[in-house]
Amino acid sequence: MTNRRPPAIQVHGLEKSYKELRVLRGVDFEVARGGIFALLGSNGAGKTTVVKILSTLLKADAGTARVNGFDVATQGADVRESISLTGQFAAVDEILSGRENLVLVARLRHVRNPGGIADDLLRRFSLTDAGGRRVATYSGGMRRRLDIAMSLIGDPAVIFLDEPTTGLDPQARIEVWQAVKDLAAGGTTVLLTTQYLDEAEQLADRIAILHEGRILVDGTLDELRRLLPPAKVEYVEKQPTLEDVFLSLVGTKS
Ligand SMILES: Nc1ncnc2c1ncn2[C@@H]1O[C@H](COP(=O)(O)OP(=O)(O)OP(=O)(O)O)[C@@H](O)[C@H]1O
Ligand SMILES: [Mg+2]
């Protein structure tokens, strides 16, 4: 045995049904350490279901999943210590200020110097000026950034971001994208789910497309593009966009 660190996430044959609805029908993928992995799929494809299983909120019916080397079914406490989860809907407390939210989470996670950690995160996420204001007065992008900042407390090895920019305006999305890029640059492994092709294109080192219960393809943007022949327009080679690849695999909207 070598003591090489295991991949951040390993998923094999994952299945999950809600009553008769077979949502996951054998999902396989692996995420190396570091970088940003995007799980892409339409509404209802099962992205949140995968994230819930990986973060031990939900049990799979079959298959195995390991996060940071720990089995989600049998080593739940170790998995939970290795991760943080930012859900599809922001989980910040509106009555508190941004700084108070951060200090609260830092206390709950028993990290040392909660105030210093809070100030550092406010700075990293460009929220220093707004830090003393109640979150109720924040824009959607500021809330999302605060939400992501909260998820960093305690330095988790793997961060799950479930649709981090759904419902945000273009400016706020760009702010959140920058925050996510900064996270990955700091060495954290990020798994994000998205239904936005441009988000995956902008952010992800690797992209997996979840469709009808399985991973259809998994690779870098360039690898996914190579699945389609380049469209020739006169002398200019037009690269297929991720949207072209996605729609050719998943089919056009009905
Ligand atoms: N607790 C539940 N009970 C019954 N059905 C559920 C439950 N949770 C999810 N589903 C169904 O399972 C399917 C997958 O849901 P899931 O939330 O994982 O999709 P998603 O890819 O995250 O979608 P979205 O992009 O809309 O967030 C959907 O058809 C959904 O209605
Ligand atoms: Mg979802």
UniProtKB/TrEMBL annotation:
EC number: 3.6.3.-
Localisation: Cell membrane
InterPro entries: AAA+_ATPase (IPR003593), ABC_transporter-like_ATP-bd (IPR003439), ABC_transporter-like_CS (IPR017871), ABC_transporter_ATP-binding (IPR050763), P-loop_NTPase (IPR027417)
Entry-linked Pfam families: ABC_tran
Membrane topology: Peripheral membrane protein
The protein's enzyme class: hydrolase
Alphabetical list of PROSITE patterns matching this protein: ABC_TRANSPORTER_1 (PS00211), ABC_TRANSPORTER_2 (PS50893)
Residue ranges annotated for the ABC transporter domain, each copy included: 9-237
PANTHER family: ABC TRANSPORTER ATP-BINDING PROTEIN, ABC TRANSPORTER ATP-BINDING PROTEIN NATA
Family: Belongs to the ABC transporter superfamily.
Entry protein name: Daunorubicin/doxorubicin resistance ATP-binding protein DrrA
Source organism per UniProt: Nonomuraea coxensis DSM 45129
